[in-house]
Specification:
seven-stranded mixed beta barrel; 26% helix; disordered C terminus
Amino acid sequence: MAARPIGNATISFGLVSIPVRLYVATHSEQLSFNQIHEPCGSRIKQQIFCPKCDRVVERGELVKGYQFEKDRYVTFTDEELRAVEAEASRAIDISEFVPLSSVDPLYFEGAHYLGPQPGAEKAYQLLVSAMHDRGTVALAQFVHHGKEHLVLIRPVGEGLVLHTMHYADEVRRFDDVEVGGPQKIRPQEIELAKKLVDQLSGDTFAPEQYKDEYRDRVRAVVDRKIAGEAITTSEPEPARAQVIDLMEALKASLNRPKTKGGTRTAAAPEPRRAAAAAKRSETPARRARKKQ
């Protein structure tokens, strides 16, 4: 079945304008659950309650409020907010072309497909070809649902994909993350790590080989419930961190058999190696307690 457009826009670069249609590019396959009142089996209804007035309020009584101090708000009606929304322009005015490799994926937010409107096919393909040839993507700003978005347009095959982006002030700095400072890494560890990376490397990204196993397990349990089957549950064993020598872990990883999907099956270190690694990882204090 042909995809249905969700809106129209116009890409412009220089004096060239390309009328396009927007299509949804992704959707979630996660299972969703409703809140059910267990005694009667009915779906609950969520209501809006005002604790000060001690009653349920209707949506028509609501306005939006911005908290500028604790428990103090300035309020806005829908009409006031619409008045300050970005102008409802459908133009996607390209400001610059940059290499895709220069764009950090951290900035990506959502994605839509762009297809040409009737009569714009030639100009559309011209832009796709030029971007492919130059190896670039386009940056622009686009008004959608009354808000201005930073967007990136990239060529994919014979078409274009539009990615909504975070603005720079919406991305937190990684400098705020504690990474433990410089670590002393031996040359042998670096070589083994690079060998492991080489063994796990593929030629291209093949998303079809990855499956959401959790979703499949949930769906299987749902099907069993629908069929009237009783489900027994048990608490999973808590994962215990293994203290092992880094070199031994790298060597053991290199010897793991490769599975169809490109990943490797978990393999415990050989008993003798594991015991030796555990002994090496013990602190002097632990050794002293053992002798006592």
